[in-house]
Amino acid sequence: MKNFTGGENQQTIAELSCSVEFTGEVHGELVFLSVVNTFLSITAFLGNTLVLVALRKDTSIHQPSKLLYRNLAITDLCVGIIVEPLYVAHWTFVVNKIWDICYYTYLTAYFPSITLCSVSLVTLTAISVDRLLALLLRLRYRQVVTLKRTRSIVIGVWIVSIVGASTSFLNILIVSLFVYIATAFCLVTTICAYTKIFMSLRHNQIHVQNHVVQGRSSQANTLNIARYRKAVYSALWVQVTLVICYLPYGIAVALTPQRGMPLSSFLARGFTVTLVFLNSSLNPFLYCWKITEVRQAVKETVQQLYFCIN
User: Fold this and answer.
1) Smallest Cα–Cα separation from 238: which of 272, 198, 280?
2) What are all long-range contacts of 193-198, with beta carbons under 8 Å and residues at least 24 apart?
3) Between the CA of residue 202 and those of 39, 197, 198, 229, 231, what are the distances in Å?
4) Is the pLDDT of residue 107 over 70?
């Protein structure tokens, strides 16, 4: 069995996954992963296509916030139509011992994987900051958080993610450092944002209760806070789901020995990366479950498709 070290190029890992000595005993597991990811690819494509159509139709969601959700849906869609088929092709070539093509499909899949995961993580961080700004800025929110500024941020996120993922062609240590720094920054920012949000909501709740006791309740303000709280919890559900899906893969990578990758680590990477891809299929269901406007638009879209087919 070949070994790899953390300082070697990512291609060495591709060589491991495309060698009969290393993968000859796990063909059944690879077939299972291929079938599961084929199904997830289809659900990610259909679900995120419906969400994108629904977001285009809906006019009640603030445009910058809608752009962030559309960007997240686009990354999930790309996972379904680009990354998952590449991994399925890679595992299929391994099972059929087509080593040359197997090697290049692994390298081809790695770059968009890093890019799309980075964009997803940063976009969710931007959504948490967007929710915090909506709370802090109040009436000035729509003046500060504009569609033009949000579009510039989204473009910048894509550029940085593509450049960072491109370093995988130079040295695996560089792209690993990029991933660690980006992940740490996003997690710290998100935790701080939601902590501030919930502390402010708690303070507001106490303030409203005091007004009720004094007979000066403001029904309009209560309704606005309730709507805002619902939007925050919707974003938080998506954030928590991403962490749950991504965390096992991070643990699997962290526990991989620096010298020599055992077969168990190889399989752990395969199953946990499938869990990462599962996130792209779950997000559309979360949007429909937690965001009323998206759910209604998706229903209308499905009904229109049904009537067109029949």
Assistant:
1) 280
2) 193/125, 193/128, 193/129, 193/131, 193/132, 194/128, 194/132, 194/232, 194/236, 194/239, 196/132, 197/128, 197/131, 197/132, 197/135, 197/232
3) 43, 9, 6, 11, 16
4) yes
CA nearest to 80, candidates 289, 284, 290, 293: 284
Residue 11 C-beta-side C-alpha neighbours within 13 Å: 7
pLDDT digits (tens, 9 = 90+) for 193-208: 999 999 888 877 766 6
Residue 272 in tokens: 């946990």
Task: Give the pTM.
Answer: 0.86
Q: Residue type for 295, please? A: R
CB count in 10 Å sphere of residue 265: 15
Indicate the pLDDT class of residue 11, thresholds 50, 70 and 90: very low
Distances (CA, A) of 189 to 96, 124, 163, 175, 192: 45, 10, 22, 21, 5
- Assess contact for 268 and 61: CB atoms under 8 A: no
Q: Which of 54, 55, 77 is nearest to 66 (CA)?
A: 55
Q: Are 282 and 274 in contact (CB under 8 A)?
A: no
Quickly count: other Cβ atoms within 10 Å of residue 215's Cβ.
Answer: 6
State the Cα angle at 100 between 99 and 105, rounded to 5°.
95
What's the pLDDT score for residue 214? 54
Helical residues (DSSP H) of the chain, grouped into ranges? 11-17, 20-23, 27-57, 63-78, 84-95, 99-137, 141-144, 147-166, 172-213, 219-254, 263-290, 292-309
164: CB partners within 8 A, 6+ apart: 114, 115, 118, 175, 178, 179, 182
- The yes-or-no verdict on residue 81 having pLDDT over 90 is yes
Which of 41, 1, 65 shows the shortest CA–CA distance to 238? 65
Residue 56: both structure tokens together: 């285009």
3-state secondary structure of 101: helix
